[in-house]
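Re: export button greyed out
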Amino acid sequence: MFPAQEVLTKALQLALDAGHEFAEVFGERLQTRSLSLDSNKLDKVRSGIDAGLGFRIINGEKTYYGFVNALDELSLLTLAKEVSAYASFKAGGKGQLKLTSRKVPQHSRCELFPEDVATARIVDFLRTANTVGRDFDKRIVQMTVRYADVSQEICVANTLGVYALDRRVRTRFVAEAVAQAGKDLQTGFEGPGATLGIELLQKQTPEQIATEAARRAILNLEAGPAPAGAMPVVLAGSAGGTMVHEACGHALEADFIRKKTSVFTETLGQKKMAECVTVIDDGTIPGYYGTLGIDDEGTLAKKNILIENGVVLAFMSDYLNGTLLKMPLTGNGRRESYRYAPIPRMTNTYIAAGNSDPKDILSSVKKGLFVKKMGGGQVDITNGNFVFEVTEGYLIKKGKLDRPVRGATLVGNGVEVLAAVDMVGNDVSFIPGVCGKGQAAPVSDGQPTLRVPSLIVGGKA
Amino acid sequence: MITNRELQAYLAYGRKKGAAIEIYLQEQQEDSVSVRNKEIEQVQSSLDRGLGVRVILGSRFGFSYTTSINDADIRRTIDQALANAECAMPDKNLRLPIRSSRTLSKDLDVFDANIPKLTAETRVAQAKALEAAAYAYDPRITKTDAATFASGMMMSLLMNSAGLAVTHKSTWAGLSLEIIAEDGKVMEAAYDYQYGTHLKQISPAAVGQNAAALAVAALSAGDIATGIYDLVLPPRVAVSLLSVVASLFYADMVQKKKSLLRGKKMKKIASPKISIIDDPFLPGQLGSFLYDGEGVLGKRTRLVRCGVLQGYLYDTYTATKDKVQSTGNAIRGSIKAEPMVGHSNLFIAPGGRSPEMLIAGVQKGILIHSLMGLHTADPVSGDFSLGATGQLIESGKITRSVKNMAIAGNLLDLLKSIVQLGSDLEFRGSLGSPTLVVSGISVAGKD
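Workaround output, generated via the alternate export path:
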């Protein structure tokens, strides 16, 4: 399917012979399938194939990129010639290129590949989820249930001699419930995802996913407004890792470090956070949504300790930024598709477990906010200010959970918040998500229960 | 690309299998240059092609796409769409639009012949001018994340088995800049952008200066007390909120009980000063088209008149369901999905005062520079809670920059609380708004 090793060598050699420093071919064949059930109707069944080749040249800090919607030899050689002609460069001293095939580890053991599962079988799962969600409570007025699977085959070859092939499978099942009481409409969401096949639904069944979405919609209907102002916040171990993803994950990506636009620029070896905070990005955790054998540049995925006991140890790099910064490649060079040059991205990012009992953390707070589940977020990596959404939250009163609250976004400063964290639980768990940084990337984020002495809560009360 | 005759043959192939069929072909040329510290950082050029097939087989919907445009893959894609339809549930409201008896030939002025002729040198010069404008604005501008100039051309061809055939051809060009200001203690970034169908609609100097001004203003930002404030939203910020509000008018969201405007037709949903219009025929705008994404003739639709909801935006399916006419609002996001209800050029009609006059009329307020977390606003409940930065307004004067605040509210309450509109209607992409003044909004600060 992809161009043969000799053809890839020929294309790359073209760029070297033209005097360029580094060249790379990225081939991709993406097969997608999605189904959605809405208003009691399984109304959308879609599938398709997106295939193409990207060709990248790097000279120093300059990148030249092009792509074609084809995988054949002629298209590749034409593309290689075109991109090589974007600029002239004289690296000199390059001999004959020899590609060496790289063995790619399979961290996620997919059992049922998309082609092994008939679309009709997925329809049953969606119908079940729809019925269960609607039966949860008579105030559930709408359920939307979606399924998507992706099979992505990739081929990477570059002028350093790297040559690797991989196949990635991802599956996601999402339920959204709408609950209504009078004029008030509230939503609930649950959406597990994994680098696995449909066996994902054995761990969390369609019934459980739908129930969780419906429960959350009803809870939000019954919830009062969130308070407004700064207060202590406990983030539950079940809440997901949006906070760590936004508060420090992005700012530890090597492109921002090289451009000196991140708050973490020139901080290697410095203690920037609390002793109890260790932050890890690990692309090798079996089955997780951000897991990879190799990144989109052919570098093996790794477990990278970014912050250890508050000290900055490493940045997440891709080839361009890692090379320019003279830092090791961490396996974080990712791209949305063959249409894009790779950039540093997170995989599975989390705060490591501490030793506090989550119950003790909750009971230590007299008055504040308890975040049971986080939604999306955003960060300004230059000043470190971030926001994240609370999709399930409660007031804390005298160390106990009080009434549920809705509609709150929390605002903080990454370095300040992670320097102030003073209790870390022993219970890490992850939530999958799709991260946007000009390009979409599947990731997962996690953390244990955390106590943050002060965050701004954007409520209405 | 494929000829009309070849496409007819593929439509016939689908029809033979008993389906109503629609094929959409799209081709996009895109060229971009990013510059940093006066040096080229990235050059990209590409031609992206693809094709999407929508079928209705026995009242069931199916869709498939491919980026491989050859005979075998196109036939395989049609077969796949048909197989997908077999798995869907029947819906009697599904149909493909027939060719309109009314045709419209009107020059929307969405093709700038200068854009396909741009040279690599011109693109680099535009990106460099953008970066230079920011540095010239203030010596505290010290770093660039990226200064990018991009331009492109889009061509599409849509045909269906009901005899409809529509083509569209347009150009676009845009600038985007993320720039950093420093004063020795603090580092702040700001972002601004400008896109248009014509080169003359974008200005490196304006974008560069505006991004620089926002970054420099943020340097001195301090905290703010929790309380109730009037908000002044410049067009750039108002449009980002309008992007969430826009989906409330989509008939599919209304029919699926996911819009809080359901059941509010001819009811008051906004301040009497507000009129909202969707108009695909505005010349030279990015959201302009004659025919929509399924080939239906576009239409100017007044959505809100003096605060009262007039109606919703429809495609053929949602219109059939509500027994009304399609408003020509089927929008194609990409070849990878069927057209869905969307907007053309959707905008809030301007008022009569200059933005300066509006600020002068605010006693205790905030001029909002940026909002964070907009993608978390909930279009179903209308609830939003956002991080924000800006400048404090006291007795009609901007007194200082402020940060670390969160603004919470509901989209409908916000629309009802708009007390003033500026005369400065500005389009950002396919959405437009003048400066808005919103009264009595709850702002959470650090104190």
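The mean pLDDT of chain B is 95. The button fix ships in the next patch.
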